[in-house]
Design brief:
heterodimer; A: mainly alpha; Rna Polymerase Sigma Factor, Chain: A; B: alpha+beta; 14-stranded mixed beta sheet
């Protein structure tokens, strides 16, 4: 996934209250914020939408105070991370997870069968990620949805690069062990992952 | 560098996060070590699986909902202001005069406290034994003020929001960029790094910080203590931040830490340190690390030994260097050892 590009001019325009600039910012990041929340809460669309709204309302209200002392994306993803963790803590165990919706994969180049296989694979991966500890989960999501570097993830989560590496190691091992039944299929090149 | 197994570097290797030298060392090791090769295959498979994730489209209505929420918040604020203005013109005039005298930026909305709809720079908010208050911190967060608490708004402007907690307890939740929101207590300043926390000032001016989400920095006279989620830190007047500790550390550990922080005789300090080293779990490396510069060289050596058993320091970090508080070695080891409490 290519990294979004928002230059300082857009940030400054947002800070001046330019609604077009904020709309551009929203359009650039909305799917990323929504995807992290959706996967974090195991496919719960209502919570994911609520978190996406919450994040952008907070951005809208606090944007004027952003001073480029840190990267904008670092601040945004820290906001997303804290909102997800905070919401999870607030809900505790009340949320009934496991109602993952059918996921829409919109790559027109793939055949129907390939799309079906890809969708099944992605659903399995999302389920395993949803069962990971929150700190592992958010680290994986920042890496694979946002393609952040280890340094960037460390800045978002307030931890060291080594911690990011060890969390990703652990997450990869969990994925590999829980989905070991797919290993042969992937190794034989049937699926282009 | 990688004379031992390279398992912990394998994800970074898959993601191209290693330097050329590190990559060569990993590749050399993988050729020789069957165990690491097996781990590598597993991690690479896990990474391929994770790569299957694709973005989902946010619902079309999200943008309109964001605008509605924003407008609703503005309307609600406007209504409250209008009602307030209509019912008490004289108070508004007085407030304007006060504003002219004290204003250094926007005011903070207050709910739950009769007679004080907002807090301005220079003003005091005080709760009694039966009242609490909710305060909206400009547009970057909110605080809940517990009973018997006194706060003063010192500064509120776009680049800084600073209040003083003279006594009592508050809970702060912020979504501001780091270091924008600061709470001063008689013994240290709590600097928000994107978080949620409670802060309580005790009778003697000491305070207790409990971070529940994110990170908070406690600062005093150039000394900074970073407190992560799940940890507490006490501060004492004249001494600044104490040693942070996790809430689930043992009672003996916490008690010995408190005794050590409060200053005791040499023999007593040695006894407390012995308890701390004995009771320390891996995660308590947080406390051990922060103790290093606060104890004498002999004790520092013992702490080094304990930490090194949890996680060996990098090759360029020596026991003597840590005892001498060599800044480069401390920095190099901190990057590694901080993994133990994150």
């Amino acid at each position: 996934m290519a990294k979004p590009i928002i230059d300082d001019g857009v940030i400054e325009a947002c800070q001046r209250g330019d609604s077009d600039a904020f709309r551009l910012l929203f359009e650039t990041y909305k799917d990323r914020v929504y995807s992290i929340a959706l996967c974090f809460f195991d496919g719960n669309e209502a919570i994911a939408k609520d978190i996406t709204q919450d994040v952008f309302v907070k951005l809208l209200t606090a944007m004027s105070q952003f001073q480029n002392r840190s990267e904008f994306s670092t601040w945004l993803y820290r906001l997303v991370t804290n909102t997800c963790l905070d919401r999870k803590r607030a809900f505790g165990r009340l949320i009934s997870f496991g109602n993952s919706p059918e996921l829409e994969i919109t790559d027109q180049r793939k055949s129907v069968e390939e799309k079906y296989i890809q969708r099944e694979l992605e659903t399995s991966v999302r389920k395993v990620i949803a069962g990971m500890k929150p700190k592992l989960r958010i680290t994986v999501l920042l890496k694979y949805f946002e393609d952040l570097s280890y340094d960037e993830i460390a800045a978002v989560l307030g931890c060291s690069k080594g911690t990011v590496a060890s969390r990703l190691n652990r997450a990869h091992q969990i994925l590999a062990r829980k989905l070991s039944n797919l290993n042969e299929a992937l190794a034989s090149g049937q699926r282009d992952v | 560098m990688f004379r031992k197994h390279v398992i912990r570097h394998l994800s970074a290797y898959c993601h191209g996060e290693l330097s050329i030298n590190e990559r060569l060392l990993v590749e050399t090791h993988l050729r020789e070590c069957r165990r690491c090769r097996a781990e590598y295959d597993e991690i690479r498979f896990g990474a391929r699986l994770a790569s299957a994730l694709s973005l989902s489209d946010a619902p079309e209505s999200t943008w309109n909902d964001v605008l509605k929420l924003r407008h609703a918040a503005r309307r609600q604020r406007w209504r409250r202001e209008a009602v307030f203005a209509g019912s008490a013109v004289a108070v508004v005039i007085a407030a304007i005069l006060t504003w002219n005298s004290f204003s250094k930026g926007p005011s903070w909305e207050v709910t739950g406290l009769r007679g004080m709809p907002r807090l301005r720079a220079g003003e005091v908010l005080q709760t009694d034994s039966s009242s609490t208050a909710q305060v909206k911190v400009a547009n970057i967060g909110q605080i809940t003020v517990d009973p018997n608490t006194r706060i003063r708004l010192l500064v509120t402007r776009p680049d800084q929001h600073r209040l003083a907690l003279d006594r009592g307890k508050l809970e702060a939740t912020t979504w501001a960029p780091p270091r924008l929101f600061i709470v001063e207590t008689p013994s240290a300043a709590a600097v928000d790094l994107g978080c949620k926390y409670t802060l309580e000032v005790e009778e003697d001016g000491g305070s207790l910080l409990h971070v529940t989400l994110g990170l908070v920095a406690l600062e005093r006279a150039g000394r900074e203590t970073i407190v992560p989620a799940g940890a507490f830190c006490r501060t004492r007047p004249g001494a600044g931040p104490g040693t942070p500790f996790f809430e689930d550390s043992s009672d003996q550990f916490q008690s010995a830490l408190r005794a050590l922080d409060s200053g005791t005789g040499v023999s007593e300090r040695a006894r407390q340190l012995e308890t701390i080293l004995r009771e320390a779990r891996v995660r308590d490396a947080l406390s051990l690390w922060h103790l290093l510069p606060r104890v004498d060289p002999e004790a520092r050596g013992l702490i080094y030994d304990r930490l090194a058993r949890f996680l060996p320091p990098p090759a360029d970090v020596t026991r003597d260097g840590i005892i001498a508080l060599d800044p480069a070695m401390l920095d190099g080891w901190r990057k590694v050892v901080s993994q133990l409490w994150q």
